[in-house]
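Ticket #4471: structure export looks truncated?
Reporter: QA, pipeline team
Priority: medium

Steps to reproduce: submit the single chain below to the structure queue and open the exported record.
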Amino acid sequence: MSAKKRCWSAKLAVTEPEPALTTAIALGANLGDPAATLTALRPLLIQELESWMGGPEPLLKLRWSPLFRTAPVGGPPGQPPFLNAVLLVERAASGAALQNSESWPDPLDLLVRLQSLEARFGRQRLVPWGPRSLDLDLLWCGATATAADQGSPLQLELPHPRLRQRTFVLAPLAAIEPGLVPPGGTTTAAALLQQLLAGSKETPPQLLPGRTGWPEWGASLLE
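Actual output as written to the record:
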């Protein structure tokens, strides 16, 4: 067994976080300088999460994935590649500040905050799945299950309906914790990623090394 495979075997033995105690946000960009954008976003996103939670939350643990270079999915042809990552926000399973393990603040409030950050970085919604200066998607928020309200300008469906169909989401999730089972299913992020790539001609996500402002790194399931 190679060193890389031993690394992933060891990671798979780790107890995955309880989905009800996590919130997951996907990050992506393919216009301008995506690496600079995502690096600049990090402290701003932390501030928004703390504000959403009502102040600094000692029971929160932020787990950032490495960066991945990925091919555009859908939208107009000729787009530049994306940089993608995922932030997994964990809450401790016990403590005075957490009486109900499935209780998170209003996910619609978080969505508004994410869209405000997108606008701050020049996001324009001109073409479906078109190029983006910044794209922030709420993948899930604890055990919350919602359907999109067609009468509302804020379309939020949780868990995200396409998170199991997107290698640019699953690769970062698997890099954080390959044994994590996204809410609404029974299959791990790592297994979902392998299944998608096995039946697709899509260019696999390329793991990027850590860098200044984004130190996270890891082994890749794709190597």
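Status: closed, not a bug. The export was complete when the record was re-opened. Leaving a note from the reviewer for reference: Confidence is low (pLDDT under 50) at residues 1-15, 94-101.
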